């Protein structure tokens, strides 16, 4: 499937095709995943990445009809999503694979830094999951920590399965106001201090959150503006992908070669949900893969922007 998507995109994505040509790669000779050139994620900051069988006159029309997701940071990435139904199907199915029916949960979102700006793909997903949960108190909690504390306590008394999805610094702010002993709530951090606090290594951060919320594990979501799929971790910082997403680890000294399992390098992501942009992304994250298809995020390249979801310094 990935090879089929590659052939489609190299034919119909002008920017990606130009990149392949500049590398002097013959796309007709690519027969294996590891032969596919992964496009640097920085291209989303400077280029309009659309994969559609179009001519130049039609591109502006498709651009106008697209939903545009943007990243945080001084120079924003822009992801033109020409078919939002694919994104919705991807995150809904992905959530279901890892957590089951969304209607069984109450969804509480503590994402102030994302709500403060427009164009967040995470907010789009969270809002939809909140609506799909159909629980009366599901919703966004901006800075109203007192209300959130009362809500969490009431849901615990009701033994209601709950997911608290929060940006890292806001979760830390919450447990400074109130300590919990949660037995029916999943704490899911989406990463990033957003300049509000000093970055922490994952082990230290998760230890603080476990103690503050009274839970044994901290879940995490790995996603970003440039992707339409998410990987999830149910603890220990080890992520698993849905079947249409795959992580490969590239050599930091040779970006066109790949490392074996358990070796640290740059994270390359295949996201087949990105059918209408680019499915082969070389991120600025560092990590390692494991033989069971899981992976770990260890930090970021030194010269990359501190932004996005789950950017913990290793």
Topology record:
Elements: H1 2-12, H2 14-22, E1 39-40, H3 43-46, H4 56-65, E2 67-70, E3 78-81, H5 84-99, E4 106-110, H6 112-115, H7 121-133, E5 139-140, H8 145-157, E6 162-166, H9 168-177, E7 185-189, H10 202-213, E8 219-222, E9 231-233, E10 238-240, E11 245-250, E12 265-271, E13 280-289, E14 295-300
Parallel strand pairs: 1-13, 4-5, 4-6, 6-7, 7-8
Antiparallel strand pairs: 2-3, 8-9, 9-10, 10-14, 11-12, 12-13, 13-14
Separation of the first and last Cα atoms: 33 Å
Average pLDDT, to the nearest integer?
Answer: 90
Number of strands: 14
Gross morphology:
globular
Strand content: 15-25%
Q: What is the C-alpha radius of gyration, as a whole number of Å?
A: 20 Å
Give a quick account of the main beta sheet: strands, pairing sense, barrel closure.
12 strands, mixed
The portion of residues assigned to helices is 25-40%
Number of helices: 10
- Return the string of H and E elements: HHEHHEEHEHHEHEHEHEEEEEEE
CATH topology of the domain at 85-227: Rossmann fold
Folded structure, characterized:
By secondary structure, the chain is an alpha/beta fold. It contains 10 helices and 14 strands. The protein has a domain at 85-227: 3-Layer(aba) Sandwich (Rossmann fold). The longest helix has 16 residues, at 84-99. The model is unreliable at 304-314 (pLDDT under 50).
Summary tags:
Rossmann fold, 12-stranded mixed sheet, alpha/beta, single chain, 314 residues, 32% helix
Structure summarized in a few sentences:
This protein is α/β, with parallel strands linked by helices and 314 residues long. The protein has helices at 2-12, 14-22, 43-46, 56-65, 84-99, 112-115, 121-133, 145-157, 168-177, 202-213; strands spanning 39-40, 67-70, 78-81, 106-110, 139-140, 162-166, 185-189, 219-222, 231-233, 238-240, 245-250, 265-271, 280-289, 295-300.
